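Form 7-S
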Amino acid sequence: MTLTAVNLELHKTRRLRVVLVCAVMVAAVVALTCANLMSDSARAGFDDPGAQPWESLLMSYVMVTAMTSPLLVAVLASRQVDIEHQGQGWMLSQVAGLRPGRLCRAKAAVLGALLAVAVPVQTALVVMAGLAAGITVPLSPGVWVQYAVGLLLVDLALLCLHVWLAARVENQLVGMGVGLLGAFCGVFSLLMPPALARVLPWGYYAVVSPLRMGDDGFAALTPGYGWLAVFLAVVAVLFAVAGHRFDRTEA
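Output:
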C-alpha cells in the first residue's frame, strides 16, 4: 500500500460522499439508542443506582450497534469499491501501477480511519445524551471505552471482509444482502449461546459486549478478548492472502 493509493482513495471518498453517509448512520445510531431517554419510566430512575440507567443505555447501544454496524460497513465498502467496477476502474488503476490487492488495502485503510473517528464520536454522543437527559448516577467511563474499542475492532474486521466481497463480486446487492443478514445475526447473537456466537463473524458484536441481561437487571460480563484476538488474526491473514491472490489473478 502506497501513499498514492491512499490519497487516491481519499479523493474518491470525498467524491462519493462517504463521510456524509457515515455521519447519517452515526446520527441514526445515537437517535435509536437514546430514543427511550425521554420516557417517564426511564427518567424516574435517572438518580437511582438500583435502576441502572447507564447500564440500560449501554445495553441499548450494544443492541443498536449490533444491528446497524453490519449495514454500515457493507454500505461503506460497497460505495468505495463499486466505482472500480464502473468504467474499468481496476484496469485503469493497474495502468497507474496500483494492483487490485493494493487498492483494496488502501480502501480498507481509508474506510478504517473513518470508522476510527465515527465509533468514538457516536459513543461520546450517546454518553452526552444521557447526561443531557438528566442521568445523575455516576458514570463508569471505562466500560464505555472498553466497548467502543471492541466495537471498532469488530467493525474493522468485517470491513476488510466486505471490501474483499465488494471487489470480487460486481453485483453490490450481494454485499448489501450479506450486510442485512449480518444485522439480523448481530442482534440475535446477543441471545445466542457464546459458543454459537463465536462461530459467526457478526457474533463478535456479542463477544465484545460488557453486559448481559439477567433476572435482576444488567450484570457485568467479561468480553471474550482471547476469542476476539483469534478472530482478528484470522481475518487479517485471510485479507492478506486474498489481496495477494487478487493481484495475481488480475495480473
